[in-house]
C-alpha cells in the first residue's frame, strides 16, 4: 500500500523545490534544498528512508511550510472528523426512516419517492450539490454562511451554522446509499420465517419489528455504515475545498497542488489507515451483535 | 361450481375450531392462484384432525390463513373460521394478536429458519409468554425452562441461554414446539412438526401432545405427509388435493376403506415391508394441478386412473357422505366414483 502511494506520487510531474522557492532563486539554494529534502537520492532509497521513519511516527517535513507532517495532519484531523461524523449523522437521519418506511410499504408512494430521492442522491456529484446548497441557502436565502470554520470552543453557534451545509452535502450521498441498504435488508428480514413465528406467538407488532426485523436487518447495515464512514473520512476532499473547510481533504489537495510530497504521502497513508481501522472496528462490532460469529 | 354439502360431524362438546368454506387466493405474477377452495371442517376439544396431501395441496396455506399469517398484500381469504365461537377471519388485529398463542399455537415446518438466529432460545420463549399478560422475567424464565424440559430437551436450564445455531435441528424443532405450547393453546396447529425429528423423539413429542390434549382438551390440527403418524395419533383424517378436501372421515374409514381414487393412490404409494423389494412402488402419475389453472371438473381428473364417469371432466363432485364410521361420524368423499360403486 505504502509503495503504491509513494510511487504514484512521484510519478506526478512537477518539481516541488521549484514550486516551493518561487520564481527567483539561485542554483545553489536549489541544490541545497534538494539535498536537504533527500530528493537527490534514488527513488528506492527515498522510499525506504521515508517508510522507515513513517514506522516510528515521523512522516517528514513539509517542503512548503517546514512544519512536520504529523503536526499538520494533527491540526486538520479534528475538522475532518467533525465533518465526517456530522455527515454520517445526516446520512443515518435520512436513511433509517426512509429505508424502513419503504421496506414496510413496498411499492407504495413513499417507497417510490424514496427510490427516486435516493437514486438522485447516489447519482448527483457532491461538488454540484455543494454549490447548489451554497447558492440556495447562503446566496438566495442567506440563512447560512457559505463556508469557513470556527472551532466549537470559540463560537458554538457559528460552528454549527458552518457545519450544516457541508455535512448535508456529504451526508446525502452516503444517506442515499444507506437508504437502499436499509430497505433491502429490512425487506429480507421481514420475509424470514422467524418473523412469522414471532407473529404466531402473539408478540405485538412493534416488538416484532424491533426484535425480529430491525435487529436482524442491522447486521448487514453495520458493514455498510462502516464503509460509508470510511468513505466520508477520506472522501470529503471536494466538499472541503468548496466550503473552505480546513480538513485533511483540503490539506491533501493543497499538497498535490504544491507537489508537497511528504504531506501528500502522510495524508494518503492516513486515509488508508482509516479504512483499515474502521473495517477492523466493524468486524469487532459484528461479533458483538451477531452471536453466530462471536462463538466461532 | 356446485354447492358444497355441509354436514357437521356429531361432536359432543362445542367444537374448538369450525372452518366453513375457507377460500384463499394468492396474487402471483402468473395470475391468481386458487390455493384453498372451499374447505370446511371442525376440530373438537381433545380431538386430533390430521390433514394429509401432497406438497402444494394447500395444507399449510389453509392453516396460515386461519391465523392471518399470509401476506395481506397478496392473499385474499374468505369464509368463516370460528375459534371457540369467534371468527378469526374478521377479528380486529389486536384481538387476533391476543388469540395467537393462548387461542391457537402454531408449530412451523422448518426448524432451521423458524427461530430468530440472534436471540437466545429463552428470550424467544419468554417473549411469547410475556406477550399475553403480566409475567415477571424470572417467572417467565422458570416457565421456559419447564417447557423445554417438557419437550424433552436435555439440560433445559442451560438450553435457555443458548442461541438457535448452537442446537441441533431436532432440538430446535422441540424449541419451536415448546413455543407453540407455551400458552397452553386451545388449538394446536402442527405443520409437519415432527418431520425433521427422528422416530424416538417424534414418539416423545406425540406423547406430549396427547397428554396436553387429555389435560387441557386441546384440539389439534396435524399436517403431515407421514401416514404412519396419522394412524398413530389422528382421530379424523382430512385428505386435501388441489386446495379442496377430497375425502374425510375417521382414521379407520379413510385409511382402511378409502373411497377417493386420490386417497387410494396415496395409500398405495406406501412401501409395504412384506412386498417383493424389487417391485416398483406404486406412484400417482402426473403432477398436481397448478393453482392458477385448476381443472373445471374434479381436481383429480387429469391424473385419475379411474375416470369412470362422464361428469368427471366437467362437473365438480360435491363432498358427499359415503358411509358412517365409529360413533356415527360421517365418511365423506368428493368423487363421482363412489356413487357408481354404490349403485
From TrEMBL, chain A:
Domain ABC transmembrane type-1: 77-286
GO cellular component, one term: plasma membrane
Primary location recorded for the protein, binned into one broad class: membrane
CDD domains from the UniProt entry: TM_PBP2
Record bears the keyword tRNA processing: no
Signal sequence, renumbered to the chain: none
Record keywords, A-Z: Cell membrane, Membrane, Transmembrane, Transmembrane helix, Transport
GO biological process, one term: transmembrane transport
Topology of the protein relative to the lipid bilayer: Multi-pass membrane protein
Superkingdom of origin: Bacteria
Annotated Gene3D superfamilies: MetI-like (1.10.3720.10)
PROSITE patterns (UniProt xref): ABC_TM1 (PS50928)
Statement: the UniProt record of this protein carries the keyword Transport: yes
InterPro entries in alphabetical order: BPD_transp_1_N (IPR045621), MetI-like (IPR000515), MetI-like_sf (IPR035906)
Pfam families assigned to the protein according to its UniProt record, in alphabetical order: BPD_transp_1, BPD_transp_1_N
Membrane-spanning intervals of the chain: 81-104, 116-143, 163-182, 217-243, 263-286
Subcellular location: Cell membrane
Similarity remark: Belongs to the binding-protein-dependent transport system permease family.
Protein name as annotated: Peptide/nickel transport system permease protein
Source organism of the structure: Geodermatophilus amargosae
Automatic annotation (TrEMBL), chain B:
Pfam families: ABC_tran (PF00005), oligo_HPY (PF08352)
Keyword Cell membrane: yes
Gene Ontology MF terms in the entry: ATP binding; ATP hydrolysis activity
GO biological process, one term: peptide transport
Location of the protein in the cell: Cell membrane
Occurrences of domain ABC transporter (ranges): 17-267
Membrane-protein topology: Peripheral membrane protein
Keyword Kinase: no
Cellular component aspect of the GO annotation: plasma membrane
Domain of life the protein comes from: Bacteria
NCBIfam families per record: oligo_HPY
Family: Belongs to the ABC transporter superfamily.
PANTHER family membership: DIPEPTIDE TRANSPORT ATP-BINDING PROTEIN DPPD, OLIGOPEPTIDE TRANSPORT ATP-BINDING PROTEIN APPD
Protein name in the entry: Peptide/nickel transport system ATP-binding protein
Organism, as annotated: Geodermatophilus amargosae
Amino acid at each position: 500500500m505504502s509503495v503504491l502511494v509513494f510511487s504514484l506520487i512521484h510519478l506526478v510531474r512537477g518539481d516541488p523545490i521549484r514550486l516551493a522557492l518561487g520564481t527567483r532563486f539561485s542554483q545553489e539554494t536549489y541544490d541545497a534544498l534538494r539535498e536537504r529534502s533527500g530528493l537527490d537520492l534514488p527513488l528506492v532509497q527515498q522510499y525506504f528512508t521515508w517508510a522507515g521513519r513513517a514506522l516510528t511516527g515521523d512522516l517528514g517535513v513539509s517542503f512548503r511550510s517546514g512544519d512536520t507532517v504529523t503536526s499538520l495532519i494533527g491540526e486538520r484531523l479534528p475538522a475532518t472528523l467533525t465533518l465526517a461524523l456530522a455527515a454520517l449523522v445526516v446520512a443515518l437521519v435520512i436513511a433509517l426512516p426512509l429505508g424502513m418506511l419503504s421496506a414496510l410499504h413496498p411499492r407504495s408512494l413513499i417507497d417510490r419517492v424514496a427510490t427516486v430521492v435516493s437514486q438522485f442522491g447516489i447519482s448527483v456529484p457532491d461538488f454540484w450539490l455543494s454549490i447548489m446548497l451554497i447558492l440556495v441557502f447562503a446566496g438566495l436565502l442567506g440563512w447560512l454562511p457559505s463556508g469557513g470554520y470556527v472551532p466549537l470552543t470559540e463560537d458554538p453557534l457559528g460552528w454549527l451554522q458552518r457545519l450544516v451545509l457541508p455535512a448535508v452535502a456529504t451526508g446525502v450521498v452516503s444517506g442515499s446509499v444507506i437508504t437502499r441498504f436499509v430497505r433491502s435488508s429490512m425487506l429480507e428480514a421481514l420475509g424470514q420465517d422467524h418473523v412469522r413465528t414471532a407473529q404466531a406467538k402473539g408478540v405485538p407488532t412493534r416488538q416484532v419489528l424491533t426484535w425480529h426485523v430491525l435487529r436482524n436487518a442491522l447486521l448487514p447495515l453495520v458493514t455498510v455504515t462502516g464503509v460509508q464512514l470510511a468513505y466520508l473520512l477520506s472522501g470529503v476532499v471536494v466538499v472541503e475545498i468548496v466550503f473552505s473547510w480546513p480538513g485533511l481533504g483540503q490539506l491533501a489537495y493543497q499538497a498535490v497542488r504544491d507537489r508537497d510530497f511528504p504531506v501528500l504521502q502522510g495524508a494518503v497513508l492516513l486515509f488508508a489507515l482509516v479504512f483499515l481501522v474502521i473495517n477492523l472496528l466493524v468486524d469487532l462490532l459484528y461479533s458483538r451483535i451477531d452471536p453466530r460469529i462471536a462463538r466461532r | 361450481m356446485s354447492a358444497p354439502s355441509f354436514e357437521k360431524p356429531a361432536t359432543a362438546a362445542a367444537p374448538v375450531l369450525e372452518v366453513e368454506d375457507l377460500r384463499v387466493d394468492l396474487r402471483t405474477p402468473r395470475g391468481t392462484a386458487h390455493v384453498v377452495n372451499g374447505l370446511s371442517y371442525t376440530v373438537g376439544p381433545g380431538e386430533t384432525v390430521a390433514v394429509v396431501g401432497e406438497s402444494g395441496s394447500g395444507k399449510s396455506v389453509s392453516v396460515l390463513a386461519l391465523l392471518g399469517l399470509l401476506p395481506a398484500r397478496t392473499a385474499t381469504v374468505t369464509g368463516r373460521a370460528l375459534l371457540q365461537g369467534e371468527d378469526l377471519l374478521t377479528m380486529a388485529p389486536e384481538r387476533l394478536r391476543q388469540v395467537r398463542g393462548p387461542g391457537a399455537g402454531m408449530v412451523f415446518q422448518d426448524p432451521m429458519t423458524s427461530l430468530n438466529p440472534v436471540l437466545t432460545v429463552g428470550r424467544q420463549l419468554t417473549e411469547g409468554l410475556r406477550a399475553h399478560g403480566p409475567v415477571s422475567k424470572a417467572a417467565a424464565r422458570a416457565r421456559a425452562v419447564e417447557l423445554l424440559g417438557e419437550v424433552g430437551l436435555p439440560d433445559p436450564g442451560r438450553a435457555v441461554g443458548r442461541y438457535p445455531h448452537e442446537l441441533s435441528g431436532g432440538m430446535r424443532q422441540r424449541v419451536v414446539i415448546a413455543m407453540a405450547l407455551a400458552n397452553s393453546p386451545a388449538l394446536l396447529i402442527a405443520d409437519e412438526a415432527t418431520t425433521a425429528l427422528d422416530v424416538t423423539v417424534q414418539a416423545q413429542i406425540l406423547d406430549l401432545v396427547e397428554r396436553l390434549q387429555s389435560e387441557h382438551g386441546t384440539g389439534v390440527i396435524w399436517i403431515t405427509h407421514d401416514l404412519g403418524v396419522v394412524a398413530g395419533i389422528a382421530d379424523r383424517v382430512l385428505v386435501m388435493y388441489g386446495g379442496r378436501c377430497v375425502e374425510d372421515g375417521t382414521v379407520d374409514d379413510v385409511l382402511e376403506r378409502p373411497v377417493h381414487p386420490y386417497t387410494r393412490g396415496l395409500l398405495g404409494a406406501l412401501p409395504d415391508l412384506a412386498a417383493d423389494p424389487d417391485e416398483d412402488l406404486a406412484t400417482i402419475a402426473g403432477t398436481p394441478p397448478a393453482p392458477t389453472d385448476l381443472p373445471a371438473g374434479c381436481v383429480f381428473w387429469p391424473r385419475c386412473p379411474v375416470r369412470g364417469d362422464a361428469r368427471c371432466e366437467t362437473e365438480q363432485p360435491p363432498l358427499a357422505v359415503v358411509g358412517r364410521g365409529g360413533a356415527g361420524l360421517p365418511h365423506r368423499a368428493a368423487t363421482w366414483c363412489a356413487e357408481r360403486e354404490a349403485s
